[in-house]
Design goal:
With 139 residues, this protein is mainly beta. The protein is built from no helices and 14 strands. It has a single domain, classed as Thrombin, subunit H (Beta Barrel). The protein has a 5-stranded antiparallel β-sheet, with no helix packed on it. The protein is globular and about 45 Å long.
Length: 139
Amino acid sequence: MTFDVQDRSVAVWDMHSASDISLRRMLVGHRAAVNVIDFDRRYIVSASGDRTIKVWDMSTCEFVRTLNGHKRGIACLQYRDSLVVSGSSDNTIRFVILPLYMHPSSSQGIPWSMKVLKALEFKRCKFKALKVLENEGGP
């Protein structure tokens, strides 16, 4: 499987061989350009200039949840071992620990934790000093 960012969407491709590549699905939902994506066996995570992070189920490519919190566009993102770390032009770094079971049909949503860090020197997602500002609860 491979990915291709196309303006406000992400193309998910199945790669069977170098010459046999087929479009699996277009992930649509961001309102501005998708700046970065990352993934593991469970989730595809995309970040955009629309200030949101979207989480998609890897096996079905179905939308799971939107993570809000940044006040400006998201410039960088990394997703590893249930931890999503994002950096934004609002000079903050946010990290979210995704629960083991995030289901799109959950009526009340599953709690997730978010901590906000202020980047004292924030330039192209290279951080020299960080300060914890707050601990927020999610929906």
